[in-house]
Design the sequence.
């Protein structure tokens, strides 16, 4: 299957002290509809990789291509446009905007791309329904539990029908039941909507949800395991 | 538009944050408003002392004055010693006192005829005008002292004070400079006096002393209204020294390149006039003395004074009078305060070749206010500015995670700037208006209560509003922009990681 996301010789060095290569040299391809789990111990470079794949950070070397568009060729506003239209993010700490209600958080990406009010209302209701949060639509994040906040964050990440959803430790701040619920949600969107996911987690139990498990250590990919083989 | 609307929603949703920021902004703009008021309106200490000294808010002199008027005082004004040929006024009065005053070289020596005031003044003080004009109450006199060396006659100026006006308008009883000793209204017409403590210290005149005062007779007035004073035939009056005052003001240094001063009796440094020997008596007491020595009420004066309730009103009246009385020097108290802060050069014509330079001005309140007013204003502005800067810095830096999230969702740098600058604009506008209005409404109430010109009051208010709101908003936008710009250019990963 033709990849929609490709990382080539990706490296990221942080300038602390004499410089630390958080990511040394990673090559990775993600195909349409694939569910990729990036696993490994803390500090192995998983989050750095995800940030580079999502254009949240610039690599020291190498490049990322999304549907043939190299990130290195884009300026800040070009990257912002990619993030707005083609990517969805789910974070460990949810990162909902505190002053907005659940439905306003979900509708924000749609308002950024200028959808009509009617369409925004329809899609927001549909997404909240899909993640089981319709009954909390008017609540602010402070009034939601961690699991509920993450459900809203998932709905927000899906708002603009992105090509890929990048999730960084989405269950890291949840109890095991809520963690499983979120992973089930991902699997459902992956299987029913053919939504592509790249999920970072250090929890080995989530390997069963993924089509591929990319294992990392010390800034490099050590193994890539495919489901069923 | 999304981010503009989001900014407005942020301002109206998070009332804890909004309230704190707006209150801080309001405090900053209130400080600025008060500081501007200090600069443009009456400075409390200055006006109090100067009102004591000159006795009014507007002083009208017939084109001669101790301070410079318009034009270049260095060339157009002269230092004149008093002589019996010159009329009396508030500045330098007594022919036997070695005092002088600054005046234009070609200044005529007219006086005001209280029964025939210039038309412009008459209109203002008539039934339609309603202004109360007071003549300076001044007479040359002598204190007679019996000493071991025999009878000594000390030349003095006898000055009448309107006790009730001083208490009502000039806050005299409260000032430390008066030493807490001033007339009571009930003493008006009684034979009590207060003396310039500094001037009479060497003479040992103290409260409780009996004062013997000789006042020369006024035989009449010449064609120009100048008094014809008979110094040889004084009348004697007895006063009880009730208290002392001190109104020392400034000094004159005589530059003496030829070293001539050493052979003269002139001290190289002289106090200009406020420690000259003055004895103050209540206005009704002065009127009794005047009637006794002149055979009738006072008709002529070299100085008229108008006391008003507000700076705005004083400015309007002074401008009108100055336009209509071109031969007169019309000054308001703040103008005098302002002028007195300058150094003037003048020729000492009667003691050539000495050059007189008024070098500095001193004494407690006026000097304090004059010297530090600008620094105080600048400091207050800096403090207020830092309050605004700190607010903006905290507003933006505490929301770096939010900026990171917005960038992750696809917001561009300009969107982040639009969001934060709109919020900043909202906060600073609301805060500065709140602070300004809170302070200014009190001022407006006093301006309107004093029947000042509404237009003048409104203009002053608009000027101050423009400065305060403009500055607060300007500083806010600059110091909201800088951290927002920095954050907007920082990669989302860093913002989310930092926060």
Sequence:
């Amino acid at each position: 299957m033709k990849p929609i996301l490709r990382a080539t010789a990706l490296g990221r060095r942080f300038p602390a002290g004499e410089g630390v290569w958080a990511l040394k040299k990673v090559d990775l391809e993600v195909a349409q509809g694939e569910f990729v789990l990036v696993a490994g111990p803390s500090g192995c470079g998983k989050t750095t990789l995800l940030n580079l794949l999502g254009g949240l950070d610039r690599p020291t070397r190498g490049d990322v291509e999304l549907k043939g568009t190299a990130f290195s060729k884009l300026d800040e506003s070009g990257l912002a446009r990619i993030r707005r239209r083609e990517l969805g993010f789910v974070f460990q700490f949810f990162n909902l905007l505190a002053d907005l209600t659940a439905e306003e958080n979900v509708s924000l990406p749609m308002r950024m791309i200028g959808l009509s009010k009617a369409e925004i209302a329809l899609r927001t209701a549909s997404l909240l329904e899909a993640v089981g949060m319709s009954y909390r639509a008017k609540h602010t994040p402070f009034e939601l539990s961690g699991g509920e906040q993450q459900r809203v964050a998932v709905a927000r990440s899906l708002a603009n029908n992105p090509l890929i959803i990048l999730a960084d430790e989405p269950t890291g701040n949840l109890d095991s039941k809520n963690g499983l619920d979120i992973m089930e949600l991902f699997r459902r969107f992956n299987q029913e909507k053919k939504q592509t996911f790249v999920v970072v987690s250090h929890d080995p139990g989530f390997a069963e949800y993924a089509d591929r498990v990319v294992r990392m250590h010390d800034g490099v990919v050590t193994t890539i395991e495919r489901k069923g083989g | 538009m999304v981010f503009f609307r989001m900014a407005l929603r942020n301002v109206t949703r998070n009332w804890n944050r909004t309230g704190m920021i707006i209150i801080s902004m309001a405090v900053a703009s209130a400080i600025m408003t008060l500081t501007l008021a200090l600069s443009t309106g009456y400075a409390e200490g200055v006006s109090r002392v100067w009102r004591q000294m000159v006795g009014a808010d507007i002083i009208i002199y017939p084109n001669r004055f101790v301070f410079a008027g318009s034009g270049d005082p260095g060339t157009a004004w002269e230092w004149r010693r008093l002589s019996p040929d010159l009329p009396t006024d508030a500045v330098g009065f007594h022919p036997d006192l070695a005092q002088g005053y600054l005046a234009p070289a070609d200044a005529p020596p007219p006086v005001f005829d209280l029964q025939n005031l210039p038309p412009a003044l008459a209109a203002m003080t008539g039934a339609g005008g309603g202004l109360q004009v007071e003549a300076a109450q001044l007479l040359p006199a002598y204190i007679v002292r019996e000493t071991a060396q025999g009878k000594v006659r000390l030349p003095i100026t006898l000055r009448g004070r309107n006790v009730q006006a001083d208490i009502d308008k000039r806050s005299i009883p409260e000032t430390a400079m008066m030493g807490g000793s001033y007339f009571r209204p009930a003493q008006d017409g009684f034979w009590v006096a207060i003396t310039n403590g500094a001037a009479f210290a060497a003479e040992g005149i103290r409260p409780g002393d009996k004062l013997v005062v000789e006042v020369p007779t006024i035989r009449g007035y010449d064609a120009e209204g100048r008094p014809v004073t008979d110094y040889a035939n004084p009348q004697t009056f007895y006063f009880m020294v009730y208290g002392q005052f001190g109104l020392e003001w400034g000094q004159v240094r005589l530059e003496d390149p030829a070293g001539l001063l050493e052979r003269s009796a002139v001290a190289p440094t002289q106090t200009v006039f406020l420690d000259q020997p003055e004895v103050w008596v209540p206005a009704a007491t002065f009127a009794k003395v005047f009637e006794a020595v002149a055979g009738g009420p006072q008709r002529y004066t070299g100085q008229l004074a108008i006391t008003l309730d507000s700076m705005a009103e004083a400015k309007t009246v002074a401008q009108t009078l100055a336009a209509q009385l071109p031969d007169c020097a019309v000054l308001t108290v703040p103008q005098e305060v302002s002028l007195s802060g300058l150094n003037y050069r003048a020729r000492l014509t009667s003691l050539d070749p000495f050059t007189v330079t008024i070098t500095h001005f001193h004494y407690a309140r006026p000097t304090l206010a004059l010297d530090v007013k600008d620094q105080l204003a600048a400091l207050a502005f800096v403090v207020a500015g830092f309050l605004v800067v700190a607010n903006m810095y905290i507003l933006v830096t505490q929301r770096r995670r939010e900026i990171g999230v917005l960038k992750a969702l696809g917001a561009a740098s300009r969107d982040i700037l639009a969001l934060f600058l709109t919020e900043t604009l909202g906060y600073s506008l609301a805060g500065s208006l709140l602070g300004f209005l809170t302070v200014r409404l009190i001022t407006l109430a006093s301006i309107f209560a004093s029947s000042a010109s509404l237009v003048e009051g409104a203009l002053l208010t608009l000027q101050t509003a423009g400065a305060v709101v403009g500055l607060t908003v300007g500083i806010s936008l600059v110091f909201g922009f800088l951290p927002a710009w920095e954050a907007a250019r920082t990669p989302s990963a860093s913002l989310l990681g930092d926060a």
